[in-house]
Amino acid sequence: SDVCSSDLSGTTPVVTLANGTGTDLVVNGTFLNSSTAASSFGISTGANWSVGAGGTYIHNTNAGVSTPLNSATLDSTSTFIYRGSSTLSPSVSTANRTFWNLSFESTSGALTVTDNRTTACTVKGNLSIGASVTLNSNSTGAWNVAGDVTNNGTIPATFVAPFTFNSPWKTSTVSGNSFTFGGGYTVDASKTLILSGTTFSVASTKTATINGTLQINQGAFPGSTGTFSYGGSGSLVYNNTSGTYGPIDVGHVYWPSSSGPANVNVLGAGGINLGVARTVSGTFQTSAEIGRAHV
After folding, report:
1. Is the Cβ–Cβ distance between 174 and 154 less than 8 Å?
2. How far is CA 76 from CA 3, 105, 124, 154, 278, in A?
3. Pairwise CA distance, residues 120 & 27, whole Å
4. Structure pTM?
5. Residue 160: half-sphere exposure toward Cβ, Cα within 13 Å
């Protein structure tokens, strides 16, 4: 059956999905599960359900979510939300999961979500951390993200899971509140990672591997710690819309003195202030001023 919107709430409501013909439940609108029943969303043997394109499932309960997810198909452009509050920590399952858009949000007060796993979680769309939410991971299970990462909450220094930014989208933008990639990150070939607005650094013992393109937008800084390693076609792009970026000195470790980006492109109107000598083995392209050039 198709569901445009549904609200499962209270202490006793329980839904058990029966096995019928085809897909047994399709959520094309919003399914809010805030029931406090121990097993609020049961799945009969062989039953299955889906969140359709543009549909949303909200898990606003500490009832288990693994069993429903095991039988779910999350279609393209669907959204899965883990919602809690200072008094409710929702049950979370991300290990070996594939989501489209994935969000963590709080309706009231501080919410801490601890996501410990050793296997990857794949987000084919956008990953969002809402205001008042702390997302922590002290284990090595990777985040594979194809879309944007928006951090309006907190990703603490104890977050050590690595990120991989991959297809199918050509760009991923990281924005919001500053945080450190505690497990480093990898940008796949033909992918552009855009840092926007503030500092998104790499932990001192970790590596950012740039096989595609690292783009620095207005106000952003990739940090002065960690190791940056560029692939044979790795590129660096500056995109300041106003004001000169820099001075670029030895503290700008994202452009190392050796094994740096093969290609550098200075976009925007601001230009850069290059205060140290750097070598570009491929193409150096600019549409703005290069101050104190050492090229």
Report:
1. no
2. 17, 21, 8, 27, 43
3. 26
4. 0.93
5. 10
